Input
Amino acid sequence: MQIICISKEVFSTGDELAKRLAKKLGYECVSRDALVEDAIKVGISVGKLEMSMIKPNLLNEKLILEKEHYRAFMTSALCEKVLINNIVYHGRTGHLLLPGVAHVLRVRIIADKEYRINQAMQKLNLSWAKAKEYIENVDEDTHKWVKFFYGEDWGSAVHYDIVINLQYMNIDNASSALCTLAQLPDFQATPSSVKAMKNILLSAQARLLLAKDKRTYDANVKITADNDIPSLTYLPRQVQAAEAIPEILKSVKDCKKVIVTPANTNILWIQEKYELSSEPAKRLLEVAEKWNSAIELLRLLPEGEEPAVIPVAKSDIPISKEYNGGIEDDIQEVEIKNDDGVSDTIKELTKIGRSGGFHQVKNSFQDLLSSIDKTVNYSLIVVGDIFLAKGYSARLRAARELKNFLSEKIKAPVVNMDELKSQFLFGPKQLVRLLVFSVCVILLYTLVFTNQELVLSLLKGGTLQDKILRAGGVFIFSPVVAYLYGNTVSLILKLLKFE
Amino acid sequence: MHELMGGFLRLDLINSLQVVFLGLVGGILSGFIGSGGAFFMTPGMMNLGVSGITSVASNITHKFGKAMMGSKKHGELGNVDKKLSMFLLVTSFIGIRLAVWINTMLGQGGGSHGEGGGSPAGDLYISLIFVGILSLVSISILMDVKKTSKDESTGPSRVIVDFFSKLKLKPLIYFPVADVKVSLWLLLIVGLATGYLAGTIGVGGFIGVPAMIYVFGISATVAAGTELYLAMFMGGWGALNYAFEGAVDIRLTMLLYLGSLVGIYIGVYGTKVVKEVVIRLVTAIIIILCVFSRAIAIPMYLRQLGWVDLNPAWDVYFNEASKILLYVAGITGVSIILYNIIRAYVQQSKIKAALSLTAK
Output
């Protein structure tokens, strides 16, 4: 079940290195080109997707769906291979197809540009200038491809365990070094990393099945999976497609049941222990209710703890869109003394139609970041209590640091749990603000509209000094009115729970 | 005939409520379409008897504050490329200044047409630019909708984009948030055009956003966020310039705020419950009706300039017809949006009720 993903630049001879490495280790060598051919055979328009990188205006709703289908296909194909064999994969983004799978050895192969140009000249029979242009264009398109599909920077070293420059190392030595590296315990499959891979496979298989069915082909769904249960959120306007989902997913192997939630947006809730009856959690639920959002749980595991298997009983998820596949009674559930409230929270969220899925990661910020799907537009990320083993101040600091870290890396508002009320809910503080803003707005409007002639005389004619003063006055007055009145409206809408 | 106070329109309760209504519809359309709303508010104010230059000036001052509120949200979501905005800003300021200068020059003819203190030449000029640009915009949206409905995956012609990408006009500048490299010369031209249109008719976004998507190749969300950020500065610069020239009626700006800052929330909510293709279709229909509305008023300005021989008594009919058509456009658009919002709300309530019943 070992997987080595090699991300290579064009004409860097990374493919030769992959073949040599696979041969040395006795692993199967899988190329992106082979998987792409399979994707084309099942009807995915890979050519159009590639072309849309060069011509961005080709991108339309259909092609964006095709992107989802392509990604699901590649993920599913790669996971299926890894679950039965050890493989060396070489392509662009194998490492990004399996977020949260800890044992992937992620290798980046680079080479000197002149060397690559020479390779292109020989293999494509091009002039130096044409070969240079070719390489630059392919690099640029690949860069865009990775950004488009995964929201990541292809060249960033943070995504790789090792970067090898083949200018300074020959292929034999590089493959020997990688053989040694692959033997390290960090890159061996563990029960939790296999579990993570199975979850990814289940999500991808579910996505592909929905793509194949004409009732759900164009459904804009977000899928996560945990413990053989896929959780799907869909937009309220696609209610007809959502009704067909449980039936379509009947054929997914090992699928215990399906959770389907209508939601306009998704909120990601990062925490170590979950308790839905706590005050902060109630506030989060209130926000989710107002925005019609699904809440996705991301549990940050305490140091040294392995991911738990969350027990799911038949009676846990009594919702209208439940599908049980008729096999739950045969499942041997794993008894866990303490899952830190996760199963209860999922159960409660599902009951009220707010479950957006669940996954868990070990306690590093970087692992946590890698496990978050950058292509999902979260409307909010909430950082709750983490690192509970530490003291109160250290916990507060850690939560603040994580919030800042995520704010920099992810395009979504990130808040701590205690900021929810002040930013998104209506309390006594907001009432005071509303009163102050309302009084200011009424005063300003009354002053202007009861003294129209005076105001208009200030707006017309005059000396150069008057003109400058007038311009400055309007420049300051207009945004002040917008700020005061805009905040008044926003607070009133908060009060009315319409946002 | 509209009563004037020192060149500005005398506002009574009815007039004021109509301006608030214009702001509300403009705000709903702005939140729904994601661009401006000025294409409804500017001609709407002109129909009320406000001069073209004062309509544009008051609207651009209103846009300044509105964009300031909106760009903060976009910034939080990482949709703003500030570096790109800064490059576009330089020439957009020149464009705005040029627009203000032309509008002021034409507006100095003043007061002869009985439409609120502007000049027929100025109003005609603004109306012609409005009709020309918005016709192009609506036709391109309709073509896009037609292609989407035919299930074609190709977009509009790539001739110009390919031409520029092959030319690789140096210096090329990299923008990290938008993740594109763009020629400095293209940036300057797009900035100038966006500024000029923002200053002339208050709808710079109709040029800026498509240019960013189709010429620069950046994503639609970053284009919208960056345009809003840019609009904040352009609005500020426009407000400064027009206020200096004595063209801003701050009362109109304040009344527009009353409607638009409420409407924008309703419009944004609408985008969550209406399909993308319907949004584009509604946008195109509203813009076409606005174009017709403004086109109907053009003979009136031509008559006032003495270029055509028409009965002056007909002015009132042209103006009323233009006004009615504009209101039909606004009310139709808003009705479609509100209908979809209410339908989605009812649907969601049913789902929630079903879920809570099952949970019991």
User: Anything to note?
Assistant: Residues 315-359 of chain B form the longest helix (45 residues).
